[in-house]
Specification:
Number of strands: 0
Structural class: mainly alpha
Number of helices: 21
Radius of gyration: 23 Å
Order of helices and strands: HHHHHHHHHHHHHHHHHHHHH
Shape: globular
Helix content: 55-70%
Largest sheet: none
Length: about 475
């Protein structure tokens, strides 16, 4: 805000260098690095103080809020395993009053500077006062969420408030960065680079989970239940991974020597397998194969040949590794192999959910009447309700026909925008959205806060970054 009010500040070399650094790829790398170090050493407070300082500096001295966008993506994933308040061993510093107070102060300061910049930009920059294309879909879905269970015996303020939090998790950053970023100056490579680097963070987190759980040293029968981070277990991690999986293939298609990014995308897929989420492995397999086929179709000449060679070598190496380390691999994946294709009670609770929908088919029963278990234990009356492990059953049971129609309308607006702006960027975003929809078939990731934040940013990139380009042939 200061550089807009006092333009002569831009003439200062210090301000010039500061803005150049904040708007470079190295700022994304720095933020990712803080999250990674926090995961190893439990430096969450240190990382969040850095995030707070960055938001303050960007709000006051930068032309827009673009440098803070990576924080919106990975701030949720900064928590280390030992700081997980839901861990079996309660060692989290975030259960202590002193830490809670500091986090509250950090959140308040970030909110003050972020909101101040939002108001400033809306008032001062007339060209940003436009209506977002997804506004009405979000309004419809928000109303359905907040009124889910209305006129039933289960409706309460708690249900209304949870619905409000749910819609904010998938829309807040969409609207905030819509108005606070000068999208005309944003590189078309920004989205795939950001999501690719977040994918690198996921590779790091999965590696850290495996090492911390002792997966490589187990004598026999490693249990995947030991795989969790400070912000979720293997299923949650799989969802975040599938949101980043297609991103490297944007560069595989558009850049010279794109085979390097095909290799990186393949690495992402291998680590999703190592993460051992059955849902994640199944759905990411579909998305990975789609990305490979898309890459081979859209690349030409030598670039296509390089990609064919890369994928062929990867398959060959994979076969060699599996044959050579067969016993070790069986040991690492012991509990996954034991679980096999069992539904883990999912189809039973799907039936329960559909029965609940039939009880109140118009507006559903609200979010707190799920008959399923939460994290393997009966719902204890806390803020986070039980889940049906299927987003679409969850919406039907919680918000009824109104809810599912609102969801369909929301998706219709998204795909309509992508269809009108056909290009490589939107193709990769489309594949990502499909992957997110697929993984939601066997879990309620659409109602998890972390993936929702990434999803909202993904939609914004589609609408604001990839417009009026030459369409795909």
């Amino acid at each position: 805000m200061l550089v807009q009010l006092f333009p002569k500040l831009n003439d200062l070399r210090l301000i010039y260098l500061l803005k150049k650094g904040m708007n470079s790829i190295w700022m994304i790398v720095t933020i990712i690095l803080f999250a990674a170090l926090s995961n190893i050493f439990g430096l969450e407070l240190f990382a969040y103080y850095f995030y707070m300082l960055l938001v303050m500096v960007v709000a006051m001295l930068n032309d827009d809020m673009l440098p803070t966008l990576p924080i919106a993506c990975i701030g949720y994933m900064t928590f280390s395993k030992k700081s997980n308040p839901l861990a079996l061993e309660q060692t989290s510093a975030f259960l202590e009053n002193a830490t809670i107070i500091q986090l509250t102060i950090i959140a308040i300061i970030i909110a003050i500077f972020a909101i101040s910049r939002l108001v400033f930009d809306i008032i001062k920059i007339k060209e940003r006062r436009t209506i977002p294309k997804l506004l009405y879909g979000y309004i419809a879905l928000g109303i359905a969420y907040m009124l889910g269970g209305l006129f039933s015996e289960y409706y309460s303020f708690k249900t209304f408030f949870f619905g409000l939090i749910q819609i904010l998790s998938i829309s807040l950053f969409y609207f905030y960065f819509y108005y606070t970023i000068d999208w005309k100056k944003v590189s078309k490579d920004y989205f795939p680079m950001l999501f690719t680097l977040v994918g690198v963070l996921m590779v790091f987190e999965i590696s850290n989970m495996l090492i911390d759980a002792g997966a490589l040293n187990f004598e026999s029968g490693f249990k995947r239940s030991l795989l969790y981070t400070g912000w979720g277990h293997y299923n949650n991690v799989a969802c975040m991974c599938i949101l980043t999986l297609p991103a490297p293939f944007y560069f595989a298609i558009t850049k010279k020597n794109g085979w390097i990014y095909s290799l990186l995308g393949s690495l992402f897929f291998i680590f999703i397998i190592l993460n051992q989420s059955r849902n994640g492995i199944l759905m990411s397999s579909i998305i990975y194969i789609t990305c490979v086929i898309t890459t081979l179709i859209l690349t030409k000449g030598k670039e296509r040949i390089k990609n064919i060679i890369t994928f062929s070598i990867l398959v060959l190496l994979l076969l060699i590794v599996v044959i050579t380390f067969k016993e070790k691999i069986i040991n690492i994946f012991a509990s996954l192999l034991k679980a096999g294709i069992k539904d883990s009670g999912r189809f039973k609770i799907y039936i329960e959910g559909f029965k609940q929908y039939l009880d109140n088919p118009i507006l559903g029963n609200g979010f707190y009447e799920c008959g399923a278990k939460r994290w393997g234990v009966p719902y204890d009356g806390g803020f986070l309700p039980g889940r049906y492990h299927n987003t679409y059953i969850q919406i039907l049971a919680s918000c009824g026909s109104i809810g599912i129609l609102a969801y369909i309308y929301h998706k219709y607006q998204i795909f309509k925008n992508i269809y009108k702006n056909k290009n490589i960027g939107n193709l990769i975003i489309f594949i990502t959205i499909i992957g997110y929809a697929l993984i939601c078939l066997l879990d309620c990731h659409f109602h998890n806060f972390g993936p929702g934040l990434m999803y909202s940013i993904l939609l914004l990139f589609s609408e604001k970054l990839y417009i009026k380009e030459k369409g795909l042939n």
